[in-house]
């Protein structure tokens, strides 16, 4: 018998003796008199026993408390796997029902897009060699980010009436790539100062403005009319080809992914910037450059005096358009 069992037995005895006292008192009250001498002696003996038992119970409670402080309670470890056993040791009541939580680090912006490009390029390369492997399987075998694997799996689904709700799924990896691209191109750096309009519309523009002139007293005032035109904003698609070696495609390190991302960004940025600042007109396949229709002044040379002369000529042209260009003094 341990301490807890002994304490329980003493408490049960105390309750039994208290019950006997209650029965004696109830009997006396029912008969309309006080307890007899024999009943008084019995009650006194019972009260003496109860006092002794209560002291013993108090001692046992102190002893049990001291033992619990000295020796922590031990619980049998449950679970069928090392992970479940560790959860049981940490105090989880039912480790078998515990959901395993795996912490996955988030990818830097653009790396997911680069990993998708690598997986698809390597899949196409293997297909040409007669051994096709799905991009999602390649991404999983190379240890790419789980979100990349999931994105490639979704893009390989066969659409039917049950899963064709998002006919054009939006990938946040593409959004990350576009966000990085916009931070590099000239047109996107100037976008905050531009007027935003949707694609495939026609807007009105002003080709030339009205002219003013000094007029003498009684003389006729000059009359000039501004001219207007229309500009069609078309939607164009940009595509780039990035040449990658087999070794780079099969390399699953972060440095390799970052190299692919940098190559994609640089090639795309170069095309957008050169198109934006050239003098070509808009066509069905490409947008027009901002220098299209501008008056050209061929450079006369690279010497300081020649550059100054070229800038002065440009300044005169801007003055005609009622603009100002500050010419540096040095």
What does this entry show, briefly?
With 330 residues, this protein is mostly helical.
Specify Rg, calculated over alpha carbons: 45 Å
Number of helices: 11
Structural class: mainly alpha
Strand content bin: under 5%
Uncertain stretches of 5 or more adjacent residues: 164-170, 323-330
Order of helices and strands: HHHHHHHHEEHHH
Q: Quote the distance from N terminus to C terminus.
A: 106 Å
Average pLDDT level? 78
Number of strands: 2
How would you describe the oligomerization state of the chains in this entry?
single chain
Set down the secondary structure blueprint:
Layout: H1 3-31, H2 37-70, H3 82-89, H4 111-128, H5 135-141, H6 146-155, H7 172-182, H8 186-189, E1 201-208, E2 227-233, H9 246-250, H10 254-277, H11 304-320
Antiparallel strand pairs: 1-2
Helix pairs in contact: 1-2, 4-5, 4-6, 4-10, 5-6
Task: Please characterize this protein's 3D structure.
- With about 325 residues, the protein is mainly α.
- It is about 50% helix and about 5% strand.
- The protein has 11 helices and 2 strands; from the N terminus they run ααααααααββααα.
- The protein has helices spanning about 5-30, 35-70, 80-90, 110-130, 135-140, 145-155, 170-180, 185-190, 245-250, 255-275, 305-320, and strands at about 200-210, 225-235.
- The protein has a two-stranded antiparallel ribbon.
- Helix 4 (about 110-130) crosses helix 5 (about 135-140) and helix 5 (about 135-140) runs antiparallel to helix 6 (about 145-155).
- The longest helix has about 35 residues, at about 35-70.
- It is elongated.
- It starts with a helix and ends in a 10-residue tail after the last helix.
- Mean pLDDT is about 80; it is low at about 165-170 and about 325-330.
């Amino acid at each position: 018998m341990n301490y807890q069992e002994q304490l329980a037995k003493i408490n049960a005895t105390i309750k039994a003796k208290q019950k006997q006292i209650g029965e004696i008192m109830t009997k006396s009250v029912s008969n309309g008199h006080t307890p007899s001498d024999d009943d008084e002696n019995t009650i006194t003996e019972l009260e003496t026993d109860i006092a002794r038992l209560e002291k013993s119970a108090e001692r046992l409670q102190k002893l049990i408390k001291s033992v619990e402080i000295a020796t922590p309670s031990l619980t049998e470890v449950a679970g069928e796997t090392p992970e479940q056993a560790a959860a049981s040791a940490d105090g989880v009541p039912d480790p078998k029902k515990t959901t395993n939580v795996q912490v996955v680090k988030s990818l830097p912006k653009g790396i997911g897009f680069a990993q998708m490009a690598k997986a698809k390029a390597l899949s196409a390369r293997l297909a040409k060699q007669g051994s096709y492997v799905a991009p999602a399987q390649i991404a999983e075998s190379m240890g790419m980010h789980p979100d990349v694997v999931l994105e490639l799996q979704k893009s390989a689904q066969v659409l039917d009436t049950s899963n064709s709700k998002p006919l054009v799924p939006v990938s946040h990896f593409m959004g990350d790539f576009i966000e990085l691209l916009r931070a590099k191109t000239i047109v996107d750096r100037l976008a905050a100062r531009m007027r935003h309009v949707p694609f495939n519309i026609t807007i009105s523009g002003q080709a030339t403005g009205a002219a003013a002139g000094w007029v003498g007293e009684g003389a006729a005032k000059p009359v000039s009319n501004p001219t207007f035109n229309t500009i069609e904003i078309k939607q164009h698609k940009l595509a780039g080809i990035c040449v990658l070696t087999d070794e780079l495609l099969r390399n699953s390190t972060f440095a390799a992914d970052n190299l692919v991302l940098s190559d994609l960004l640089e090639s795309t940025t170069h095309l957008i910037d050169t198109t934006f600042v050239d003098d070509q007109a808009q066509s069905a396949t490409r947008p027009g450059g901002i220098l299209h229709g501008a008056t050209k002044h061929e450079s006369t040379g690279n010497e300081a005096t020649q550059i100054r002369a070229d800038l002065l000529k440009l300044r005169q042209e801007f003055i005609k358009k009622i603009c100002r260009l500050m010419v540096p003094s040095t």
